[in-house]
Design goal:
Layout (H helix, E strand, L loop, with lengths): L10 E5 L13 E6 L2 E6 L21 H13 L5 H12 L6 H16 L3 E5 L25 H4 L11 H4 L7 H8 L3 H8 L1
Length: 194
């Protein structure tokens, strides 16, 4: 990953498109903070044995999208900026792409666009073994392991969250949490991490 200090020259991020899909990973999950605590949202996928991450199909046979949108409404309706982003976000979600890869890319692009970050994605053409390139974060974070990366690096910086009066600051949530609570200032919060 090559980071750019401004919008003029976009950052370049290499996305691993040639790895085998890993079940129970962040590739089809995200966490939000709801009134009763952290809630995991999950995109169901069609399991067809071993397949590349870029070939995994989203399972549209259940009404999970409606449940996800209702969960977002319940969790963020009172946040400062949710109403400004909700319709655009739901329009992205309602496109219902066939592939998980396309779903993830469309949501990443939405978040980058709304935060004002410029980024160029480059899908890998062959599998890159872990540890062979610098700044390789593919296997650092996993839902089954504690996430202490930002704290360990001294980069965990709280921001206002809707239910912080009940739970305090809750790290490790979806970037949507930052966007809905900080709005246009989300990019300033991200820059403070650098």
């Amino acid at each position: 990953m090559t980071l750019s200090p401004d919008r003029v020259s976009p950052s370049t991020v290499f996305l691993e498109a040639r790895e085998s899909y890993q079940k129970q990973s962040w590739r089809n999950r995200a966490c939000i903070l709801a009134g009763d605590g952290v809630q995991m949202l999950q995109v169901p996928v069609v399991h067809a044995g071993s397949m590349l991450i870029s070939e995994v199909q989203v399972d549209w046979s259940t009404p999970w999208l409606v449940r996800t949108q209702r969960a977002l409404d319940a969790a963020y309706y009172t946040s400062a900026y949710y109403e400004y982003y909700r319709d655009d976000l739901f329009a992205v979600m309602d496109r219902r792409p066939a592939l998980l890869w396309d779903w993830n890319l469309s949501l990443i692009r939405f978040i980058l666009d709304k935060t004002g970050l410029a980024c160029r994605f480059v899908p890998t053409e062959s599998f890159t073994a872990p540890g062979t390139v610098p700044d390789d974060y593919r296997y650092v974070l996993h839902p089954k392991r504690p996430d202490t990366v930002l704290r360990d690096l001294g980069l965990e910086k709280p921001y206002y969250q809707v239910f912080s009066d009940r739970f305090g600051f809750t790290p490790g949530l979806s970037a949507l949490d930052l966007l809905f609570n900080e709005g246009p200032d989300a990019v300033l919060w991200l820059k403070r991490l650098a």
